[in-house]
Amino acid sequence: MVTKQYASAFFGTSLAASLTAWQVDTCVICGLTTSGCVRATAVDALQHGFVPLVVGDAVGDRDPRPHQASLFDLAAKYAEVVEEAWACEYLSVRRSS
Q: Which residues belong to the active site?
């Protein structure tokens, strides 16, 4: 659990250091809001050297327009936008490896 005060789960927290210590290379990102905290966390994950996976059907926003625009932009530049079923399968395969 990470307690954060800012949009990104990385900014002002020990998240990057903890993930690095645990040899994590990928972040699965879910939550609210797509145009705020989700986007900031995905961008910071990438900038810290992690592969950000945004679960498109597990994020949301106050309005569908910024939600869709943010998913489009994240997929174009910063993250892989995936469906929940894909993310669950990916994690299942990774866990059994």
A: 37
